[in-house]
Amino acid sequence: MTNSDLSPALSLVISEVVNWCSQRPFRSPALDPSSILDVPDWSHDSEPFEPWVEKKYDSYSRAISWINETRAELLKEARIETLDAVGALSKCRLLIYWPLETVHDGASEAGSMGFYDLNDAPPWDTWFLYADHAIFCCIPEFAISRAQGGIDGNPVACIEWADWSRLARIES
């Protein structure tokens, strides 16, 4: 995959993820989307299931937009130059996470030595796109083995590696 295969906006945000993750610990409080993702758990007494699911999907979409905007602003304020997209793509792997497919058992968290959380979520610092009800994450080289440990320990298929060409298909 080359830089020309992705839109300039997506290339830029991937570069920003790589730069951010190379300089800060994961789950940075500055990018914490918890307040945006705060949708009460569903119950039979609350509301029909489908509207609740749509609220969850919408919260992930809004959270990732906010994370991308905030990360870009913070990098700009710190005067940190972003890598070119080709350089960024060579320093990470694409991971896809389906947040409503988890079993909340902690297996991925344990298998990854804390890279994933109890809900199988990768660190929000790595999130850059929400599409097809999935969160697309850019995992830096130094975290790939921990991420793989969580995938290996996960009993459901809610996290997986993908080829960067998947993004080109989404953008078309």
User: Unreliable segments (pLDDT under 50, ≥5 consecutive)?
Assistant: none
Task: Please tell me how large the radius of gyration is.
Answer: 16 Å
Q: What's the rounded overall pLDDT mean?
A: 89
Roughly how many Å apart are the termini? Answer: 15 Å
Which geometry do the CA atoms define? globular
For the sheet with most strands, the description reads: 4 strands, antiparallel
Write down the secondary-structure element order.
HHHEHEEHEH
What is the tally of helical segments? 6
Strand order of the largest sheet: 2-3-1-4
Structural class: alpha+beta
The structural domain count equals 1
Helical amount:
40-55%
In percent terms, what proportion of residues is strand?
5-15%
Number of strands: 4
Keywords for this structure?
172 residues; alpha+beta; four-stranded antiparallel beta sheet; 42% helix
Summarize the structure.
The chain is α+β, with helices and mostly antiparallel strands and 172 residues long.
Describe this entry's structure for a reader.
With 172 residues, this protein is α+β, with helices and mostly antiparallel strands. It has one domain. The protein has six helices and four strands. A four-stranded antiparallel beta sheet has the order 2-3-1-4, sandwiched between helices. Strand 2 and strand 3 form a beta hairpin. Helix 1 packs across helix 2. It starts with 7 loop residues before the first helix and ends with a helix. The relative contact order is 0.21. The model has no long low-confidence stretch (mean pLDDT 89).
